[in-house]
Recover the amino acids of this structure.
């Protein structure tokens, strides 16, 4: 009952062009049937994410570990709430990040869980920068 | 099922069969001469009701499966076409969907009856555990069946429930992938759920056979909890129990038919009339009412894994009930303390169900935690403790003695309590649709409301005109074919009028012999064409918000009625939340937003739209559409007419449904009376 060959083939890596995404905007792309949020973060959002003491977080992880070095403004996360799989809404909640409408989990501008029932941060999918304005997810 | 039978048929052909396969003897010994306690009350008829419901679900389900397409792109449409085009398809679907709720309602009564009268105690432990297994299988079947229509609630319910398994450490994620057959809920998930939803009812039927077998070995428990000793304590199953069960089923059918014919969507969720969309989560994901107490337990526990464990243990704990409650006295009738705690437990379950439908915030979370503790405390503390400290009242020596001393007062009060409880339970769902900053739409007097409601033909024809001249510029109506305009119970056009109406449309067809697509005039069998070639085009042309299809809009929109209105609605058959909302939104536009409400660029203020910022500009203004029949050309009249028309597009067989409902009710009431008097006659010598 595991995924068949065509499902696996359809889950191959995809390339996303980042040049049309302005600062402060974000886009949602689908990869393997999952929504992936790609946020072009503002300076304020980055500073907020880095100002938090890591040890105080429910799922401690530094912002640097969640983005690619040299591309600090880009946050790429799987937009599926780690509680029960709903899709959080971007740019909502108290932490300038994501807010899940189902059971009220709130994530910060680094996609880390800050408040609510979710146990973990929004996962970062495997991706790499092909060029300065293009990433490959998968 | 209770040992070899000495049954000898008189017919030689049957004798021939009986010598080779003693199946008639089995039926005879299990369902004819089988001794059943004389003092059983009507709570015991729920066993027969459940068997009947299982048969009903399998029968309607098999026919529905002949018309259903288990594919993510087609499932929603196939269910809609089934309801619209298949002969009595609407009846089959309502029977199956409401049947699931009725099945669970009956199983809860059956379980609580077992709990109250101690039917799980020695020697009926295996019988009880088999029952818990049936219940678990029912929950799995019900959940997978709810996914099949592939609406928004189907899809997101499937996502949330399958994600429960991701809480398991280490292997959770792989288990979830295995359940999905992909990387998210999708077509493979739908396919396997369909397969399993077809399989599990037959497993249930198999376990039911074991359940009945175990029942006939141990014998039935009874309200006094003393085993039958002499022949005076029992009566033969047929005709006594058969006719009593028949009467019970007839009464239950009245309730069932109330839902099928008059309130088919009362127990459902309006969001499930919106096709599944993996990119949008509905604001409140609420399971079907029968899962709500367990959902409440899941959400009360702040840790994800602990929550999942808590939810499953709430069911599994029932298996250990025979050993948790060690009291010698079976029936709570003779246990003054246990009786009180039983009713507290029932109240806890109902309140948990209510909380399961509420948004998980503030006081609801705290109340949920308290009640979760109460739920488990009943099994783990109260019952074990009671068996040690409680002094039961003296139990009668035999069933005949109990009957001589009987009093019927308790039954009536319990019946009232349970009916109220049930009604409260089923209605909690309505409450879940909390308002999102919208004002409640005003009520209207619709011609189609109530048990004898009919569509106003004039309003349908005027509504069609409004749709054609205004709405159809942006909104599709893709489940409606031109031929439907001539269907009975619809706008009432003749075949020639329908053909003429259809020929005004240009329909894309092809490819022709040269391989080209071409346009031709519409025919009666064609569907209303969409104004946009696809959803993306619709989105791009309308500032990012795609205009929704209107075929089902009056059933896909609703608003919370709140407590206690949803209870009143059950009796008044009020189910026009959708039409009230649609009509209110059409009239709710205001040029200037009130103080303190900011409306983003490109949106418009609407008093009744959730959040108040709607992308649709004010669609109707006075005098915009010319009516030929002299009706006033006002926005209020337009809104009323087009809403009536859209109610018809959502529920084209409503008139047939209500007409048949009346006939069924007349029949059922006469049938129930006949059953009752036959039962009285049969039991005349036994009381």
């Amino acid at each position: 009952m595991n995924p068949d060959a065509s499902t696996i083939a359809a889950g191959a890596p995809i390339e996303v062009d980042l040049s049309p995404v302005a600062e402060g905007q974000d886009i949602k792309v689908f990869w393997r049937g999952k929504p992936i949020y790609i946020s072009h973060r503002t300076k304020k959002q980055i500073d907020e994410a880095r100002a938090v003491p890591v040890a105080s977080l429910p799922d401690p992880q530094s912002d640097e570990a969640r983005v690619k070095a040299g591309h600090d403004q880009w946050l790429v996360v799987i937009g599926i709430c780690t509680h029960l799989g709903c899709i959080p809404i971007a740019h909502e909640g108290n932490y300038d990040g994501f807010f899940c409408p189902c059971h009220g989990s709130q994530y910060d501008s680094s996609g880390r869980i800050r408040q609510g029932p979710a146990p973990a941060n929004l996962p970062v999918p495997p991706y790499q920068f092909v060029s300065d304005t293009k990433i490959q997810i998968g | 099922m209770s040992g070899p039978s000495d049954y000898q048929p008189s017919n030689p052909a049957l004798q021939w069969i009986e010598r080779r396969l003693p199946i008639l003897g089995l039926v005879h010994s299990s369902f004819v001469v089988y001794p059943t306690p004389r003092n059983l009350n009507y709570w015991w008829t729920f066993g027969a009701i459940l068997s009947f419901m299982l048969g009903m679900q399998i029968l309607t389900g098999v026919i529905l499966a002949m018309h259903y397409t288990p594919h993510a792109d087609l499932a929603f449409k196939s269910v809609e076409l089934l309801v619209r085009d298949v002969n009595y398809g609407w009846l089959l679907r309502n029977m199956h969907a409401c049947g699931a709720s009725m099945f669970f309602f009956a199983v809860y009564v059956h379980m609580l009856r077992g709990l109250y009268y101690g039917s799980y105690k020695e020697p009926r432990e295996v019988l009880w555990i088999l029952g818990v297994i049936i219940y678990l299988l029912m929950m799995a079947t019900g959940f997978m069946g709810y996914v099949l229509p592939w609406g928004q609630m189907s899809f997101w319910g499937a996502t949330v429930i399958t994600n429960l398994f991701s809480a398991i450490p280490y292997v959770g994620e792989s288990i979830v992938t295995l359940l999905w057959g992909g990387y998210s809920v999708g077509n493979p998930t739908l396919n396997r759920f369909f397969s399993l939803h077809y399989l599990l009812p037959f497993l249930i039927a198999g376990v039911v056979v074991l359940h009945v077998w175990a029942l006939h070995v141990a014998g039935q428990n009874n309200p006094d909890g003393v085993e039958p000793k002499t022949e005076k304590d029992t009566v033969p199953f047929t005709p006594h129990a058969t006719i009593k069960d028949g009467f019970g089923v007839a009464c239950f059918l009245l309730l069932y038919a109330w839902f099928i014919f008059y309130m088919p969507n009362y127990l459902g969720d309006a969001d499930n009339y919106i096709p599944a969309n993996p990119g949008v989560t509905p604001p409140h994901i609420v399971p079907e009412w029968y899962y709500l107490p367990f959902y409440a337990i899941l959400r009360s526990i702040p840790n994800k894994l602990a929550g999942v464990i808590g939810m499953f243990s709430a069911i599994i704990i029932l298996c250990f009930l025979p050993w948790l409650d060690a009291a010698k006295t079976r029936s709570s009738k003779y246990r003054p303390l246990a009786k009180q705690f039983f009713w507290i437990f029932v109240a806890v379950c109902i309140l948990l169900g209510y909380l399961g439908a509420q948004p998980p915030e503030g006081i609801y979370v705290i109340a949920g935690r308290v009640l979760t503790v109460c739920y488990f405390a009943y099994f783990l503390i109260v019952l074990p403790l009671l068996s040690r400290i409680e002094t039961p009242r003296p139990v009668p020596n035999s069933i005949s003695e109990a009957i001589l001393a009987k009093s019927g007062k308790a039954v009536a009060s319990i019946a009232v309590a349970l009916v109220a409880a049930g009604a409260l339970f089923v209605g909690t769902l309505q409450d879940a649709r909390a308002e999102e900053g919208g004002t409640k739409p005003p009520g209207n007097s619709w011609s189609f409301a109530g048990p004898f409601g009919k569509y106003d033909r004039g309003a349908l024809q005027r509504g069609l005109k409004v749709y054609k001249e205004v709405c159809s510029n942006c909104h599709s109506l893709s489940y409606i074919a031109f031929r439907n305009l001539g269907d009975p119970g619809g706008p009432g056009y003749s075949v020639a009028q329908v053909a003429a109406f259809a020929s005004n449309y240009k329909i894309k067809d092809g490819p022709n012999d040269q391989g080209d697509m071409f346009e031709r005039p519409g025919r009666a069998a064609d569907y209303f064409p969409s104004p946009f070639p696809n959803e993306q085009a619709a989105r791009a042309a309308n500032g990012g918000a795609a205009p929704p299809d209107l075929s089902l809009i009056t059933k896909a929109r609703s608003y919370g009625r709140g407590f206690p209105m949803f209870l009143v609605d059950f009796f008044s058959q009020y189910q026009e939340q959708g039409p009230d909302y649609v009509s209110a939104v059409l009239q709710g536009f205001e040029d200037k937003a009130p103080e303190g409400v900011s409306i983003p660029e490109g949106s418009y203020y609407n008093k009744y739209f959730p959040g108040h910022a709607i992308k649709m500009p004010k669609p109707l203004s006075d005098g915009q559409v010319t009516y030929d029949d002299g009706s006033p050309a006002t926005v209020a009249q337009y809104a009323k007419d087009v809403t009536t028309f859209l109610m018809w597009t959502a529920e084209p067989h409503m008139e047939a449904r209500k007409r048949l409902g009346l006939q069924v009710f007349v029949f059922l009431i006469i049938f129930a009376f006949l059953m009752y008097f036959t039962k009285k006659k049969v039991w005349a010598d036994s009381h």
In short: The domain at 22-126 of chain A is CATH 2.102.10.10 (Rieske Iron-sulfur Protein). The CA atoms of residues 78 and 113 of chain A lie 13 Å apart.
